[in-house]
Amino acid sequence: MRGRDDEWTGLMRAANGGDAAAYRRLLEAVTPVLRAATRRGLVRAGQPADQSEDIVQEILLAVHLKRQTWDATAPFAPWLFAIARNKLIDALRRRGRRIFVNIDDFSETMAAPAAGETLSPGEVATHLDGLPSRQRDVLRSIAVDSVSIKETAARLSMTEGAVRVALHRGLASLAAKLREP
Amino acid sequence: MQTDRLIAALAADANDAPRRIGPMLVLALLAALPVSVALFMSTLGMRPDVRTAMHNPFFDLKFAVTLALAFAAIAVSLHLARPEASFKRWGWLLTIPVGLIACGIMAEMAMPHERPWLTRLIGNNARYCVSAIPLFALPFLAAALLVLRRGAPSRPALAGAVAGLVAAGLGATLYASHCVDDSPLFVMVWYSIATAFVAAVGAVAGRRMLRY
Prior knowledge:
heterodimer, A: 181 residues, 68% helix, globular, B: 212 residues, mainly alpha, 74% helix
């Protein structure tokens, strides 16, 4: 786990220095680990494991919006697992369970692959429809249709700056909506 | 939504280096300062004999205690804004102002006094003290909570309570320059009650505001 943690820390440092590719690689690298730990946490709480993807996405959003709280001189993994643990507890509480989640669930977890294409659109997609129209259109374009910021700007006749602002606000509103009980 | 698409969107939003909370907290408290000072000057104002009072070590001690509380609580606040923070590791900083006031009480007890200790403890201004400190603390508390919303505390109520200690420390610093009660006994009792009240308000607000 040592090598993995060091790699994550290095990627996050690069990401904070403005390296978006490193950031993306980091998020892709942590996702399978978060997925496996979340599944395990759900099963332990007597919940169906197929809800894990919603929780993984919620964790990723929180990681993104709270990345300023990571201290670049500290290792990345404990920070990540603390956020993941908090989000899993929140999710279980919303489902009516008060559960103590062991942090070892995360730190000792091996990666789990995605469960293939899920049929349900998921919580994030459901909340997407409730966003203000600008944010919704920008997020749909970038996150659902995989269109770049530049093309999204052209598509919606917005400036690139306005697309960036709408993207950021949209992600923040999504996180806020997911937090509601 | 597919998770890999969400990741692509997050990466697209990551072009700016995230802003650190520490400097923002300091700026926000500085911004709240004129508001609290205006409240203070328009209600109580400094005591008339403030220049001679400055030569009284027990008058000065009040500021050492309140500022120690504020600075220790700022450090603990910033720590608690991190999800992996543990209160145990940094919480001891908050005992510094307690230690200072304890030293003050022992020093004062060792000195001869015209007034009995209970009179000094009850003082003249207790009612002002417990209402004015929270009033002057309020702008600082609002400023601190607004910045700490950018944090990711694992214990939002505790983080809010410590933000309350920051605000109470700064509010009490203003109030201390008005109050003619310089006895550390008075400070220990009445300032603590006011501080506990602000911390409780902070805890309730933090529970709602600082969840992420």
